[in-house]
Design a protein that fits this description.
CATH topology of the largest domain: TIM Barrel
Order of helices and strands: HEEEEEEHEEEEEHEHHEHEHEHEHEH
Number of helices: 10
CATH superfamily of the largest domain: Glycoside hydrolase/deacetylase
Length: 364
């Protein structure tokens, strides 16, 4: 599993390096003595109220340490330095940067100026506020478009989409049903693990198997989301903090359950090209590119015909000055605010369509 692998990677300390010293001291750390090991916690659902990173540091004197979030393609977000301890909490400024699983590391320094870093691991999502926010778009402050692919019934389609995203250096999101993921084995699972670790994709829960509707009770939604956590365990990563209800059909009960389990964003959409109807490449590309603006969230499906059209979609968006990004990138900026389509549906059920009919067995 990815978490276990990253725990091992995180336990491989980087050699202590010359920090440039303090003042005229020019002090360096002794690579043989100053070292730090960090182990992230296992993913949990519900998301824990507090998250601790286990740390072991040795060597030097007057040790201090801090946790650093290191989003791909973005500035590092460091926590304040603190006295060395056996565990580091994820503080507010770092938690705000972790819209989804993102890389991070622990940094340690000694009073003579030397520093060392742990290996890189994925920071767990911070706890939700208890209330999930419904979003249909992101901020228009940046030229981002989120291409969000649902279901996962076609594992070959998932694999091909990841290949395109990697080749084009773009970002994407998968909202997966656990009942589909359970049929995967081998390469697709490993590809998802690697793509999440590289910041190439973000995962999002789509429920167990299209079981929910505008009348779903809180208890039913809690059971559906909790059962779907089996997909997270199989893939070794967490779908928190993003949830997309089946068909975009949201009930007050589903909204309450998502918030209680740690999901911060219920992700609907503003662009629906009806790719589940399997239009040709030119038609599907035209629908996506023409309708997308800054902050658009596009509902897609992880199927072969969508994978066929993805390169031209990304190229067309780029020609308009837009960049395909993950939901983590779209909502991970602490300064970012949702777009005009955001709002709560705590009293009014919402049904927006846009989802493919369930495949045989998906409701099992």
């Amino acid at each position: 599993m990815l978490v276990a692998l990253l725990a091992v990677v995180g336990a491989i300390a980087w050699s202590a390096r010359d920090s440039g010293g303090s003042g005229d001291s020019g002090a360096t750390a002794d690579a043989a003595t100053l070292r730090v090991f960090a182990t992230p916690p296992k993913q949990q659902l519900p998301a824990p109220a507090t998250t601790q990173i286990a740390v072991t540091a040795a060597g030097g004197s007057g040790l201090q340490m801090r946790l650093v979030a290191a989003p791909k393609g973005a500035a590092h977000v460091p926590a304040p330095w603190q006295a060395a301890a056996k565990a580091l909490p994820v503080p507010a400024n770092v938690a705000r940067a972790t819209a989804g699983l993102i890389p991070g590391f622990v940094e340690v320094r000694e009073d003579s100026g030397g520093t060392a870093r742990s290996g890189v691991f994925l920071l767990p999502p911070g706890p939700g506020p208890g209330t999930a926010q419904v979003v249909r778009s992101g901020s228009s402050a940046k030229p981002y478009v989120a291409l969000v692919s649902d279901d996962g019934i076609d594992c070959a389609g998932v694999s091909r989409i990841i290949d395109v995203l990697r080749r084009t250096r773009s970002g994407g999101t998968f909202c997966l049903n656990g009942i589909n993921v359970r049929t995967w084995s081998g390469s697709p699972t490993k590809k998802v693990e690697a793509a999440v670790a590289d910041g190439l994709i973000t995962l999002c829960s789509h429920g167990r198997g299209h079981r929910t509707s505008t009348t779903t009770s809180e208890a039913e939604a809690m059971a559906d989301l909790s059962t779907n956590a089996s997909a997270d365990r199989q893939l070794g990563v967490s779908s928190v903090p993003f949830y997309r209800p089946a068909y975009g059909a949201l009930s007050p009960g589903s909204e309450k359950a998502a918030g209680k389990l740690g999901y911060r964003w219920i992700v609907l959409w503003g662009v629906d090209p009806s790719d589940y109807g399997k239009p040709d490449v030119a038609t599907l590309t035209g629908r996506v590119v023409s309708a997308s603006t800054r902050g658009s969230i596009v509902v897609l499906h992880a199927i072969g015909t969508t994978a066929d059209a993805l390169p031209s979609m990304i190229c067309g968006l780029k020609a308009k000055g837009h960049k395909a990004v993950t939901l983590t990138t779209m909502f991970g900026d602490p300064a970012a605010t949702p777009g005009d389509g955001a709002g709560s549906t705590s009293t009014t059920p919402v049904a927006t369509g846009g989802d493919a009919p369930p495949a045989p067995g998906e409701r099992a």
